[in-house]
Design brief:
single chain, alpha/beta, Quinone Oxidoreductase, Chain A, domain 1, Rossmann fold, 2 domains, 7-stranded mixed sheet, 6-stranded parallel sheet
Length: about 375
């Protein structure tokens, strides 16, 4: 990294969202130097996640803020650090994380959660904590461009609070590390940490996108005996089976409800664990009903933007079945993701399986369309 940029405003390219559902516009923008407890990163790779897609569509009106730079799955190199930053320096290989870890608050010090009081996931946040201002500006009028999910990676350079930056081994390929910024970590962690899937157990996964397939990879690594994948797109089944899914169900081809077919496949009892990865309440209901009475656990991973509540009667929880949510797979980002990266590099989870397409950054709108059309898992973009 050239030290001539340290402390200076950088001019670079970014994909700017000007309104809900509008094509992203490749713009020349200004990126300020990092302030106290912030890091400026040169982004080398980024990809599109369903959270970017739903935010881009403007599905939740309260989250709308424009112009804005989306993106939260990426990898890159530290260009410079702000005052007070420790453990990170110029030239470090890093990945941004949307769910930060300051290491100092009561949440970070509690082993029972991966939440952080100040730097946890917050879709409403659009400016930096240090001074309540943006670090991105339009080049012509120097008007602010808002941030997204603590990261804003659809830019050649981004400024991120240090609590949301994870240092990784420089020997690990950064293109693969990009997968750990969100989707793979969320799914694998849901299986390993949130559910703590046991060997010889049974699993059902509703929705076979990147997160669902990462759940499958995590459950397979734990030795689950049966992993049932549920999706209305049968084109996903080949990849699912490559990642450990043993049985595939297309609800459109069933004469009965999905949960009834899952119970048939498990001898009548249902699965030990189910994972809902779609953000659909009817699917969440099926996931819950597919679990075994007495001990079944449903893990909610899909993003539900609407105001509707859980499709459960309170008395159903008296049967011993449980339901819980999982954010970032239960991983504490700064202290635990480096270990996950090492396991992936040893082959416990094959990150290559999640990169279905590669495109130059300038074709980001094409990457959005691939994901929206169900044609891609992760489209890796090179900046």
């Amino acid at each position: 990294m050239e030290s001539t940029t340290v402390g200076k405003v950088i001019t670079c390219k970014a994909a700017v969202a000007w309104g809900p559902g509008e094509p992203l516009v490749m713009e020349k923008i200004l990126v300020d130097p990092p302030q106290k407890m912030e890091v400026r990163i040169k982004v080398l790779f980024t990809s599109v996640c369903h959270s970017d897609l739903s935010a881009w569509k403007g599905e939740n009106e309260s989250q709308r803020a424009y112009p804005r730079i989306f993106g939260h799955e990426a990898s890159g190199i530290v260009e410079s650090v702000g005052e007070g930053v420790t453990g990170l320096k110029e030239g470090d290989h890093v990945i941004p994380i949307f769910n930060g870890e300051c290491g100092e608050c009561e949440y970070c010090k509690c082993e029972r959660t991966n939440m952080c009081r100040d730097y946890g996931v917050n879709p409403m946040k659009k400016v930096m904590i240090a001074d309540g201002k943006c670090r991105f500006w339009t080049k012509e009028k120097r008007e602010p461009i808002f941030h997204f999910l603590n990261t804003s990676t659809f830019s050649e350079f981004t400024v991120i609070e240090s609590a949301c930056v994870v240092k990784v081994d420089p020997d690990f390929p950064l293109n693969k590390m990009t997968m750990l910024s969100c989707g793979v970590t969320t799914g694998v962690g849901a299986a390993w940490k949130t559910a703590d899937v046991k060997a010889r157990s049974t699993v059902a996964i509703f929705g076979l996108g990147s997160v669902g397939l990462a759940v499958a990879a995590g459950a397979h690594a734990r030795g689950a005996s049966k992993i049932i994948g549920v999706d209305i797109n049968p084109a996903k089944f080949v990849k699912a089976q490559a990642l450990g899914v043993t049985d595939c169900i297309n609800p459109k081809e069933l004469e009965t409800a999905s949960h009834e077919e899952i119970k048939r496949l498990t001898g009548g009892g249902g699965v030990d664990y189910s994972f809902e990865c779609t953000g659909n309440l009817a699917v969440l209901r099926e996931a819950f009903l597919s679990t075994h009475l007495g001990w079944g656990l449903t893990v909610l991973l899909g993003v539900h933007p609407g105001p509707k509540t859980l499709p459960l009667h309170p008395m159903e929880l008296f049967n011993g079945q449980r339901i819980t949510g999982s954010v970032f797979g239960g991983f504490k980002g700064r202290t635990q993701i480096a270990g996950l990266a090492e396991e992936c590099m040893r082959g416990v989870v094959n990150l290559d399986e999640f990169i279905s397409h590669e495109l130059p950054f300038e074709k980001i709108n094409e990457a959005f369309q691939l994901l929206q059309g169900g044609e891609s898992l992760r489209c890796l973009m090179h900046l």
